[in-house]
Specification:
The complex is a heterotrimer of chains A (about 300), B (about 375) and C (about 80). Chain A is α/β, with parallel strands linked by helices. Chain A is built from twelve helices and eleven strands. In chain A, the strands form two sheets. In chain A, strands 3-1-4-5-9-8-10-11 form an eight-stranded mixed beta sheet, with helices on both faces. In chain A, strands 6-7 form a two-stranded antiparallel ribbon. In chain A, helix 2 crosses helix 8. The mean pLDDT of chain A is about 95. Chain C is elongated, with a radius of gyration of 17 Å. The mean pLDDT of chain C is about 95. A two-stranded antiparallel ribbon of chain C has the order 2-5. Chain C has a two-stranded antiparallel ribbon with strand order 3-4. Classes of the chains: A alpha/beta (about 300), B alpha/beta (about 375), C alpha+beta (about 80). Strand 2 of chain A pairs parallel with strand 1 of chain C.
């Protein structure tokens, strides 16, 4: 099935949207025998306005926080019907880390046969760029704006991969639209029955919410990995493996500089914020290297 | 046909087993828990081959049923009180997506204050959700209504979910004799699920969003389907009577002692049993009972017909709509201009509605007492 | 307006390909002679409106929104930007 068939052209996503880049490549791997369960999110809104749909595979939209639970139901029904197919739950960072966390935890704990994919654009973009627990430290959003008494989001990103891994999830991985072949390989692995329930956390730089030119979506996704702001790794049965090693990480400043949501960090007096971000990235990398048995 | 002495909740579990939903997803909550505990035992012993999912909340339980039903299998869940309130948004999803899920509800009050005993506030809060609501008077009726509910819900002209409501503790935990129907007869009355199924060769989108140009038309379709359901309910009830020898009035309402009555009491659920007993024991001739079995769809025509010629009526309701009074009372009040309607609110939080209370209610109805009367 | 006929339960399969997006553009991508037909732009296009034909990339301008992500990812700088007329 070609790129266009799983997801039709004509969806109303913003120009330069990373989610539609991701979904086309995901569906190319998943194929026709797939049921997508989508939470209320950017992807859902741009693709399913009655009477049209961009979905060339079976698609169910329920509510915001229950894509995981609905997917669990789909998976049980398919088993009962004797049908073999992929069940993929797709939600944004809100529908995964915040309001969706409970139902995700339930599905993982029960070992339901689903693949959960989080398309992380770092905020509630669908409703106009509000802060989520996935918004990075220091980033501007409409509900965590910088001001006299604020530098933007004041909390660190919720470590969802650690939460998922601690559920003894058979397969979980981070991915990025900047590294499509790596993403596709991880989708392939995640869809293998023996690896389910599986979880993919996909970095999706959003031109509108992060404030950069739409042509730079892929460039910024790659820069995130090169600076260590996003790490590409997978975990199988408790073993961690870095899938894209970065020999010498570029300073986080180079990443922060490219996006309007961090512009205020370059004003005099905010140097310490950038320093803190760099320190945290160093710590996270150190942790990952240790977990994957490297120095 | 076997006759067993069963708890209301176990009667429901037996009926569910006979209807054979392929997926059951539930979360425990007093006083429905016995339903799913009995189902769990049946599953563990291989008596009931269903996929039983132990959801981590009622919101997820209903979501799992939504996913399974949308894929193409029959489903079941049970809940009460806080659980119904928690799954509120998913109830609207399910009815909007026209999925014929059947849910048993052991009616229980809503906190605060926290209370585990019977009243109708949980299901009354969902009266606009697009779910059909059937209220049962006995364990036998609960058993029969589960089977009928699937048939009604799955009718292609209806395709709406249904709640089978039993008074918490009063029916769920009390033992009564129940005729367990023959499996082959149930299969004949209720064949395997033949609704919408997922086809990989013909992919469809379910749950699309609709703008102002379309949304209202979907709601109109739901309302029309609910109205058509009245006829489907009547036919299901007559067919059930033919096959199993048991029926419940027209299927929408039941009347008792109305032939000689000048006054009537209207109510739902287990209180009907108490009222029949009071009328029989005291040989009361001027008072009759109109039992509403189907609260949604609301049987306007049949209730109007039953109340024809009444001098005064009273409505007994186990729910309070603060600032209005009785929601059911007002729905009835709107149907009759010719006679006085007395409003009785009682039984909230499981407070007993005793035979003495019923006799007092009868007197108040005869006296055409006004204002909201707390039982 | 009142009384539109809608599909039962809103179940639909009518593709969005019926809705053209060409009006969204300010700039349009133009494939130059440098193109090797490697398909990297095809893999990354958010609209799925690129394909390779005769070893060259081709843009379906009915759906192109002019983000120029393709020009950015092209390893050979074979896509240039032109103002929409």
């Amino acid at each position: 099935m070609g790129l266009a068939c799983g997801f039709y052209q004509g969806s109303t996503n913003c120009s330069g949207c990373p989610e539609t880049v991701a979904i086309r490549n995901i569906l190319e791997v998943a194929g026709k025998e797939t049921v997508v369960v989508n939470a209320t999110s950017c992807l859902e809104i741009v693709s399913s306005q009655y009477p049209h749909t961009s979905w060339g595979v079976n698609y169910i939209h329920g509510a915001f926080e229950n894509s995981s639970a609905i997917a669990s139901g789909v998976s049980l029904a398919l088993e009962k019907m004797g049908k073999k197919g992929n069940v993929i739950a797709i939600a944004g960072d809100g529908g995964t880390l915040d309001i969706g966390l409970q139902s995700l935890s339930g599905s993982l704990e029960r070992g339901d046969r689903i693949c959960f994919i989080c398309l992380d654009n770092n905020a509630y973009m669908n409703t106009g760029i509000q802060r989520s627990s996935a918004t990075p430290f220091g980033a501007w959003t409409t509900t965590s704006p910088h001001g006299k008494f604020s530098v933007g989001k004041e909390e660190w990103k919720k470590p969802i991969m650690e939460i998922v891994a601690s559920h003894r999830t058979p397969y979980a991985a981070t991915a990025s639209v900047g590294f499509i072949p790596d993403l596709k390989e991880k989708v392939r692995k995640a869809l293998e029955r023996k690896n389910q329930p599986s979880f993919l956390h996909v970095e999706c730089p959003c031109p509108l919410g992060w404030k950069f030119d739409p042509s730079k979506t892929i460039e910024i996704a790659r820069l995130a990995v090169e600076t260590g702001m996003w790490m590409l790794y997978e975990t199988e049965k408790g073993n961690f493996r870095i899938t894209r090693p970065v020999e010498k990480r570029r300073p986080v400043k180079e990443y922060l500089r490219t996006q309007g949501r961090f512009a205020h960090l370059f004003k005099p007096g905010n140097e310490r914020v950038i320093k803190r971000i760099q320190e945290q990235v160093d710590i996270e990398w150190g942790k990952l290297l240790k977990l994957s048995g490297q120095k | 046909m076997t006759k067993k002495v069963l708890e209301g909740s176990h009667a429901i579990a037996e009926a569910v087993k006979l209807c054979g939903p392929e997926v059951v997803a539930a979360y425990p909550i007093t006083p429905q828990t016995h339903i799913i505990e009995r189902i769990s035992e049946m599953v563990a012993d291989g008596e009931f081959r269903t996929k039983f999912s132990r959801a981590e909340s009622e919101h997820s339980a209903m979501s799992i049923c939504l996913g399974a039903q949308a894929t193409g299998v029959r489903t079941f869940t049970a809940s009460a009180s806080q659980g119904i309130a928690l799954m509120h948004e998913v109830l609207y999803n399910v009815s909007g997506m026209r999925l014929p899920i059947v849910m048993a509800v052991a009616n229980r009050s809503l906190a605060s204050p926290l209370n585990i005993w019977c009243d109708w506030s949980d299901t009354f809060a969902e009266r606009d959700s697009g779910w059909m609501q059937f209220y049962c008077e006995s364990a036998q009726e609960a058993f029969d209504t589960v089977i009928q509910a699937y048939k009604i819900a799955e009718n292609p002209n209806v395709s709406l979910p249904a709640m089978v409501c039993i008074d918490g503790f009063i029916l769920s935990h009390v033992y009564e004799p129940v005729d367990i129907a023959e499996k082959s007869l149930v299969r004949k009355f209720l064949p395997a699920y033949s609704g919408r199924k997922i086809d990989f060769g013909k992919p469809v989108t379910q749950g699309a969003w609709a703008g102002p140009d379309y949304f209202q038309d979907f709601k109109r379709d739901q309302h029309e389907a609910m109205r058509k359901a009245k006829d489907v309910i009547r036919r299901a009830n007559s067919e059930f009577r033919r096959v199993f020898g048991r029926g419940y009035g027209s299927g929408l309402i039941e009347t008792y002692n109305m032939e000689s009555a000048d006054h009537a009491i209207i109510t739902m659920g287990s209180a009907c049993g108490t009222i029949r007993h009071v009328i029989r024991k005291n040989k009361i001739r001027d008072m009759g009972l109109v039992k509403i079995k189907s609260f949604r769809p609301f049987p306007i025509g049949e209730i109007k017909g039953a109340l024809n010629g009444m001098k005064s009526i009273g409505v007994l309701e186990k729910n309070i709509s603060p600032g209005l009074g009785g929601a059911l009372c007002h729905e009835i009040r709107g149907l009759t201009r010719k006679c006085s309607v007395s409003t009785f609110i009682g039984g909230l939080g499981g407070r007993d509605v005793r035979t003495e209370d019923i006799l007092n209610i009868f007197d108040d109805i005869r006296e055409e007492k006004r204002g909201l009367i707390w039982v | 307006m009142t009384g539109r006929k809608v599909a039962k339960a809103g179940v639909t399969s009518k593709p969005t390909t019926g809705l053209k997006k060409s009006g969204w553009r300010t700039f349009r991508p133009v494939i130059t002679e440098e193109c090797r037909g490697c398909g990297i732009c095809v893999m990354h296009c958010p609209e799925g409106c690129m394909k390779t034909e005769n070893k060259m990339a081709k843009v379906d301008y009915d759906y192109c929104k002019g983000c120029l992500l393709c020009a950015n990812v092209c390893a050979f700088k074979a896509i240039k930007s032109e103002m929409e007329k």
